[in-house]
């Protein structure tokens, strides 16, 4: 007696596919014995089509999931006589005429088979493979083992055991469905096939894929062609929740803790990747799916108990799961795809530019695989500009030789031992510096901590200094090239770009910022050309590109302002001038939000991203930090002559170079054809000079130091404006191709201008290191520094000066004052109680001042070389101090007799600080997402 087969068809708004499905079902070479149709309250003609084809239709509410619909259909199957096999079909899948016959033939040939599935092909293409059995990876990815878009050529036509088969065309024994309890209703639409197959394999049943049986599947719900009350717009949420649920409820008890942690971490990694490609909706779906399950542990535990009750084990499942290494291979594939896409895009852009410029396109000999590489090398070696650029970078690295390895000196404090020190400084609301202070950590500590976590603290500082000139050169080249093409389609010649980019790249070195160790000015100089390049997007004709330019400019401005706060104030002034001029010229055009909005976004972004810095700075009275560059105080004094010649005080290259650049920028005003863009450059330089002059009138006083504002960034802007003006004017004059004295004058000016980068580069190679060195000696004995690292209560009181000229004191804690802490120490208020006790300590040996030192968290007292003899004699006679050894004969040291008091000075992290840092992190992620290109999905 042949087996009885009942086809169970579930439908919801499937009228567009059902006629073909009905035709495929009724044309089977081995006809089904009966058809049971279940419709979940379709809003189209689906019920009528099913009724005409098969008679009675079982109706379910519109929100009924697929497992519940199958259960309703099975009840009808049992009521009408039962069945040996149940053939599950969707309303968007149509079987090949021989599908059922092939499935039953495989079942007869393999009596142990309990669940069988067909080969799924894409509908309507009919040739592309969708699935030949499925499994799941450890991260919840649905694995088919097929390449994307792979065509069916018979390459996978072997009957084999798999973890699961799709419910579209699944043939399953009726008694197996009953013993396993059907499909899990916690997965109403997606993923229930893998869960069912996992439970079947765990219970000892066998699932086979039969490639000879073919079913065509439209995947309407997965592709978003059809929306149901169960998915709505959040298809990804349902798919991801089903994947997480399947892994959690079916995992072994031993592997469950690891799986819980792995899925949580993997979810956040996937969210970050999705947001970087601006798939914010899917990223939120990922988080919602995780929260839905992790917030309802009873749901998972109840499902696990149900599976144990039905006797499900794990012994037969492991070989059918995806290999453990597969998710990592997918990750490498994604990275390689992105790299290939970026490379191909860059090559296409370069090729289009060559075609637009009328240059010959390189032809590669397909028979010679090395032809392209050889052609590139030949072009590079025969291009004087390319060779010159390589030589320039090499000489710049020679000039930066002192920054290789550990570097400190001048205004640059040594880097801390670990990136964790920077993270701790960023998170603390009360720092264990001196006697404790609430002055916030400077904003640049966060980017330093991020980079330091990847490459180390000392390497971070070294990289920022070593790569400053090459990265500035690259950014200046890109910016000047775009500016030149905005003025003329041909753009500037390569040698002019090289001349302008090298001059711009040497500005931070020639100004003295590099040699003085002004890390903030150096980093701001590196960011400046990239910031200017991003700001050019404000003129893009497409609103979407203008908005993205606004966000990108805002991110780069926030980075520059973190190291050089005046970058923000100058940008605010410049944005006001640009927007005001726009309203003056065309008030109607400026009313469009996509015109004035991007500049507003650009200047508002740093306010949000740097919130944990500037808000506490204002509230704690340390707002002077909003006008100071990164590094030790005081700032270099900059007068008007320094602004004009591009110097930070007395440091930097000879003044002649700055005056030559100024002269070339003045001559750039002569050509009438380029006078307007040159005037724009001069206006930018004038605005920077005006801001610098105004800020130069103020003096910032703190207990530890008195300083002027940090004008280094404004010096850079002025010099960069001169460079751009000179390049623009030279480009215009070259394209006019004047003859006679005009061309000779232009050649003379260019020759004079070329002296600036040549001499500047030579000066940097010879004198570049300046005050930088690879030594971090503090003059304090090493054993004292080792003791200080035990905790902030093991402080070292350092007294400098003499009784005749006056004494100053400071307290060293842990590993000393490092980069980031130096600015906090310079801005914090002195402790009057400790100041009074130190005064008593060095003035009279009879007073018991030493007894107060443990309460201040001080274990040692040091008079660095050369120690004042009178002060040393007083400390020798002071009760409570014991002489300690010093590494130098002219350095004197004492140890406090009383033991230190634990917790005398301790850092704190207030709740409001945590809130600010969390908001900052969310803001950074959101802005980075908005900076990414808009991705538009095409639906079939």
From TrEMBL:
TM region positions: 448-474, 494-514, 521-539, 559-584, 596-615, 656-673, 680-700, 712-734, 746-766, 910-932
Superkingdom to which the source organism belongs: Bacteria
Name of the protein this chain belongs to: Glycosyltransferase family 2 protein
A GO molecular function held by the record: glycosyltransferase activity
Protein's UniProt keywords contain Kinase: no
Keywords assigned by UniProt, alphabetized: Glycosyltransferase, Membrane, Transferase, Transmembrane, Transmembrane helix
Pfam families registered for this protein in UniProt: Glyco_tranf_2_3 (PF13641)
Annotated EC: 2.4.-.-
């Amino acid at each position: 007696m042949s087996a009885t087969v009942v086809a169970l068809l579930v439908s919801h708004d499937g009228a567009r596919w059902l006629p073909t499905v009905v035709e495929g079902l009724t044309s089977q070479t081995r006809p089904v014995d009966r058809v049971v149709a279940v419709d979940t309250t379709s809003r189209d003609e689906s019920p009528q089509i099913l009724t005409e084809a098969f008679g009675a239709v079982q109706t379910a509410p519109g929100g009924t999931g697929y497992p519940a619909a199958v259960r309703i259909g099975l009840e009808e199957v049992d009521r009408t006589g039962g069945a040996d096999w149940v053939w599950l079909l969707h309303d968007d899948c149509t079987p090949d005429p021989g599908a059922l016959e092939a499935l039953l033939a495989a079942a007869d040939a393999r009596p142990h088979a309990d669940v069988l599935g067909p080969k799924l092909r894409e509908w309507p293409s009919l040739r592309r493979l969708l699935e030949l059995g499925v499994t799941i990876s450890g991260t919840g990815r649905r694995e088919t083992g097929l390449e994307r878009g792979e065509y069916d050529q018979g390459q996978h036509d072997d009957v084999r055991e798999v973890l699961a088969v799709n419910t579209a065309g699944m043939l399953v024994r009726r008694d197996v469905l009953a013993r396993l309890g059907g499909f899990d209703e916690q997965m109403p639409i997606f993923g229930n096939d893998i869960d069912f197959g996992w439970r079947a394999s765990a219970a000892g049943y066998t699932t086979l894929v039969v490639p000879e049986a073919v079913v065509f599947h439209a995947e309407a719900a997965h592709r978003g062609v059809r929306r149901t009350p169960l998915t709505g717009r959040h298809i990804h949420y349902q798919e991801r929740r089903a994947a997480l649920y399947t892994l959690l409820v079916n995992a072994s008890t031993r592997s469950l803790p690891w799986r819980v942690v792995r899925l949580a971490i993997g979810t956040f990694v996937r969210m970050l990747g999705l947001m970087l490609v601006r798939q914010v909706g899917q990223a939120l779906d990922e988080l919602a799916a995780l929260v839905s399950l992790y917030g309802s542990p009873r749901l998972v535990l109840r499902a696990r108990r149900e599976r144990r009750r039905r006797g499900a084990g794990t012994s037969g499942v492991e070989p059918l799961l995806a290999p453990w290494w597969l998710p990592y291979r997918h990750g490498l594939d994604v990275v390689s795809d992105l790299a290939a896409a970026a490379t191909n895009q860059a090559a296409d852009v370069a090729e289009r530019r060559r075609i637009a410029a009328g240059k010959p396109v390189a032809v590669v000999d397909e028979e010679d695989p090395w032809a392209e590489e050889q052609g590139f090398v030949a072009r590079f070696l025969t291009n004087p500009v390319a060779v010159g650029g390589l030589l320039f970078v090499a000489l710049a690295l020679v000039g930066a030789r002192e920054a290789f390895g550990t570097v400190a000196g001048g205004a640059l404090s040594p880097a801390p031992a670990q990136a964790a020190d920077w993270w701790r400084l960023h998170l603390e609301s009360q720092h264990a510096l001196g006697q404790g202070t609430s002055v916030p950590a400077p904003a640049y500590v966060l980017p330093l901590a991020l980079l330091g976590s990847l490459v180390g603290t000392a390497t971070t500082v070294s990289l920022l200094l070593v790569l400053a000139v090459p990265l500035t050169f690259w950014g200046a080249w890109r910016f000047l090239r775009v500016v030149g093409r905005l003025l003329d389609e041909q753009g500037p010649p390569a040698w002019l770009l090289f001349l302008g980019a090298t001059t711009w790249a040497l500005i931070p070195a020639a100004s003295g910022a590099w040699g003085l160790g002004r890390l903030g000015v150096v980093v701001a100089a590196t960011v400046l050309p990239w910031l200017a390049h991003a700001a050019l997007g404000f003129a893009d004709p497409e609103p979407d590109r203008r908005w993205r330019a606004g966000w990108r400019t805002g991110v780069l401005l926030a980075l520059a302002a973190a190291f050089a706060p005046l970058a923000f104030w100058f940008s605010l002034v410049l944005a006001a001038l640009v927007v005001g001029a726009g309203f003056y010229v065309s008030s109607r055009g400026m009313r469009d939000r996509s015109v004035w909005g991007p500049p507003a976004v650009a200047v508002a972004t740093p306010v949000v991203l740097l919130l944990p810095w500037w808000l506490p700075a204002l509230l704690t009275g340390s707002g002077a930090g909003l006008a100071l560059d990164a590094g030790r105080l005081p700032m270099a004094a900059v007068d008007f002559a320094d602004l004009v010649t591009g110097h930070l005080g007395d440091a930097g290259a000879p003044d002649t170079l700055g005056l030559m650049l100024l002269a070339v920028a003045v001559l750039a005003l002569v050509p009438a054809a380029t006078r307007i863009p040159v005037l724009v450059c001069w206006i930018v330089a004038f605005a920077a000079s005006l801001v610098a002059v105004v800020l130069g009138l103020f003096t910032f006083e703190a207990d530890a130091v008195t300083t002027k504002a940090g004008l280094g960034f404004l010096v850079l802007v002025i010099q960069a404006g001169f460079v751009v003006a000179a390049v623009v004017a030279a480009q215009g004059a070259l394209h006019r191709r004047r003859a006679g004295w005009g061309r000779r004058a232009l050649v003379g000016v260019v020759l004079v201008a070329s002296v600036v980068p040549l001499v500047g580069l030579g000066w940097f190679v010879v004198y570049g290191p300046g005050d930088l060195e690879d030594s971090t000696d503090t003059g304090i004995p090493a054993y004292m520094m080792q003791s200080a690292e035990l905790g902030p209560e093991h402080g070292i009181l350092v007294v400098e000066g003499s009784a005749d000229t006056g004494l100053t004191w400071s307290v060293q804690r842990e590993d000393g004052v490092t980069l980031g802490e130096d600015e906090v120490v310079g801005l914090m208020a002195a402790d009057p109680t400790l100041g009074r006790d130190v005064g008593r300590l060095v003035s009279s040996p009879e007073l018991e001042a030493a007894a107060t030192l443990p309460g201040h968290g001080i274990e040692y007292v040091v008079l660095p070389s050369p120690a004042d003899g009178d002060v040393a004699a007083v400390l020798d006679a002071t009760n409570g101090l014991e002489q300690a050894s010093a590494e130098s004969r002219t350095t004197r040291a004492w140890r406090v007799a009383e033991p230190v008091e634990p917790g005398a000075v301790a850092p704190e992290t207030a709740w409001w600080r945590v809130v600010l840092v969390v908001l900052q992190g969310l803001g950074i992620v959101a802005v980075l997402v908005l900076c990414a290109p808009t991705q538009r999905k095409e639906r079939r």
